[in-house]
Amino acid sequence: MPEQLSNSLAPPALRTAEPQSVAGDNPQVLLDTLLAACRKNLRVVDEDRIRHAFQFCYEAHKNNERASGEPYYTHPVNVALIVATEMPLDDVSVVAALLHDVVEDTDFTIDDIRADFGDEVAEIVEGATKISGIFKSREITVAEYYRKLLLSMTTDIRVMLIKFADRLHNMRTLQHLPEERRLRIARETRDIYAPFAHRFGLGRIKWEFEDLAFKFIEPDEYYKIKNALNLKRDEREKYIESFSAPIAATLKEHKFKFDIVGRPKHLWSIYNKILTRNKTLEEIYDLFAVRVTLDTDDVNDCFTVYGMISGIYKPVPERYKNYISVPKKNGYQSIHTTVIGPQGRMVEVQIRSKAMQEIAERGVAAHWKYKENTNAVDKELEEWINWARDLFSQPTDETPKEFLESFKLNLYQDEIYIFTPKGDLRILPKNATPVDFAFEIHSEVGFHCIGAKVNGKIVPLNYKLSSGDQVDIITSKHQMPNRDWEKFVISHKAKTQIHRWLNEQRRQLIETGKELWDKKMKRERLHFNEDDVVRIAGAFRFDNPREMYHAIALEQFNIDDKLPLLHDRTRLFASEKDEGVPLGEQYKTFVRTAREGGVTIQGSGANIVYVYAKCCNPVPGDDVIGIVTVGEGIKVHRRTCHNIAPLLYAGEPRLIDVRWTVQQADAFIAGIRVSGDDRPAMLHDVTHAISSYENSNIRSVSIETADEIFDGTLVVYVRNVEHLNNLIERIKKVDGVKTVERFEEDDVLGR
To answer: Of 188, 214, 240, which one is at a domain's C-terminal end?
Structure first.
């Protein structure tokens, strides 16, 4: 695509993912190439400083080689060249790019960098070094630390932009790595780096990330599409030229300065459209696309040109999008329209100014300029940084992987445009609800949201909003979030705020329950140490004291009813075990209560109390047996349970036959253990396999990774064994999963 606007019809282009690195390893040639790029693209160039950084880089890496056999120093030089040409920032960024691997890969330290190049360069290099492994969750063990690392990326945008350049050059030379590493890096690039680049507004880099990843992950499909497009390149270029000619003539007649080019289409986008639309390559109509770029500072010129094009070709009304008046969240602006061109073919046309084109390709990097005589960044960049900080700054108790999975959902989502009653605009993810909108306005509005009017009509809180909706939030000081909200909110901000609020409320209830417990024990002159309280909680069938305190605060557990037992330590702690008490005596202690569903006890009425054993967590369909216990009635186990097998062998008299009823009203918990090859989005894919099957719910997830292998456990709610087995089969189909099995461990499954 031409760099200068010249009232010309440029030949259309097709973006392909081929390596574009600087060839050769002659140090002087590399340095001269880099300096020439800096002179051409940067406003200020300290050539002596760049030469010094180049020499430092060369000396630090001169004894190391890349997998390709090239000297290692060629990599940081190429990264610096990308920074200088494809996202031109400043000469400080070029220096930092040359040095970005020195601390990580050599014996030099940050102090050495600081001594030679100053604090600014040292801080950027240190930031790049810290986040070099940010997407490998096994390296981050504390969620708060992980969150702060992400937040540090918004302290100086140049840190992340250098990491993008670093990854881009690695992807351009990925063919030299072993296949296993190629696939891991390609998936990581597609699933994480490309979405981040999208949110940074780096359109050109995002496209290349996706195409290069596509090339290495699915090479057959990649080359199939590429070769098919190449065969018809001449035909496509002739059509675009004939389509563009009358537009160019009209614009020249009205004295516009412009370029018209065939808009590059990246292969990953075409492949996705083939899949999602279930069409052939020939049926994807917007392979024909042009971009009109105007050399103007008046945005109204874009609308004028839209009117001219609509006068030449008939527009398709439902395919008009005005991103100039309502920019995307990453700053992207353009008019999109689809028109019926010659031979009845539909052609997508984008109309934008030269400045808008700069933002479309370079995003936040295009804003990297300083106001005269100040260190304040321009308004657009500052707004982006504030958005990112707001997203990252909320404390969370999510695991690092959960946090990243949640954040990724917001990186690539389509956006909708919602208006307040006063006409102010808010941009939200597609499928957002009034609750998401309320939290976008303010956290207090979100916390007390009780209802909403959409376009004047009352709607439920889980209503899915559409672009153009005007939303009026109804609040009440008595309204508080509940856990159902977590099931339908979409935005990362709403999810984080609700999760944090619910956890804080639970913490307060636990404190209240503990205070009530302590006061009651003091009044009764009962003294229990911490170990005793843990045993007491277990005796009353709680996982831990916090669960017991929580139930006390909610008045679900009455301490007064338990005082006789609390005063009798011998009987209290004896109830922790399944002791051999005669069956008839045990039945006398059972509390009679009606229960729907569950199990029936052979030879007894339907009101016998029973519980499901935590050690094996039976679900309907399992072969089960009961055992008489102290204080809990019949405890139902799986016959294969490791605690039951010895009792069956010994003929334990407390064992009784039980069977499942035909109808089950309860949800039962079951454990699933999963292991396989670690990769980005693995957690998302596994949990999606569960949640997308008959609205299955997940109680908890625990995933650990080491040496690119993951091992995890999931606790899920199921109706019966068939439901559980279907979930296991779905997980087995997830890419990279090696083993899936049911498990039964007390410490993971809990009560």
So the answer is: 214
CA-to-CA distance for 367 and 386, rounded, in angstroms?
14
How does DSSP classify residue 287?
G
Token digits of residue 77: 């030089």
User: Which residue range is the domain that position 699 belongs to?
Assistant: 668-749
**Is 558 within a domain?**
no
pLDDT in tens, 137-171: 433 333 444 444 455 454 577 888 888 899 999 99
Residue 352 near residue 333, CB atoms below 8 Å: yes
CB 188 within 8 A of CB 680: yes
The reply to whether 105 belongs to the active site is yes
Query: Considering 18, 47, 65, 104, which one is annotated as catalytic?
Result: 104
Residue 544: is its pLDDT beyond 90? no
Question: DSSP class of residue 677?
Answer: E
Task: Round to whole Å and give the CA distance between 570 and 535.
Answer: 12
Q: What's the number of domains the chain is made of?
A: 2
For residue 60, is it within any domain? yes
104 is catalytic: yes
Residue-averaged pLDDT of the chain: 78
Q: Dig out the tokens for 11 from the structure.
A: 């030949």
Tens digit of pLDDT for each residue in 646-666?
777 667 777 888 888 655 556
* pLDDT at residue 279 greater than cutoff 80: no
The answer to whether residue 543 sits within a structural domain is no
Sheet holding 655-656, edge to edge: 610-612, 634-638, 624-628, 655-656
Which residue of the set 105, 221, 380, 543 is catalytic? 105
- Strands (DSSP E) contained in 300-374 are 314-315, 321-322, 335-340, 346-353
CATH of the domain at 677: 3.30.70.260
Q: Could you tell me the CATH number of the domain that includes residue 138?
A: 1.10.3210.10
> What's the burial of 436, exposed, middle or buried (CB within 10 Å: 0-12/13-18/19+)?
buried
User: Can you tell me whether residue 629 is helix, strand or coil?
Assistant: coil
Residue type at 292 in one-letter notation: V
- Residues 631-646: pLDDT tens digits? 566 888 888 887 787 7
Type of residue at 264: P
pLDDT at 748 over 90: no
- Asked whether residue 16 carries a pLDDT value surpassing 50, the answer given is no
* Residue 477 CA neighbour count, 13 Å, CB half: 0
Q: What DSSP line would sit under 510-536, residue for residue?
A: HHHHHHHHHHHHHHTT----HHHHHHH
Whether 738 is covered by a domain: the verdict is yes
Domain boundary among 186, 214, 242: 214
Which single residue is written with the structure tokens 């503990």?
514
Element (H, E) at 291: strand 289-294
Q: Residue 222 has which token pair?
A: 């990649």
Integer Cα distance of 23 and 651 in angstroms: 80
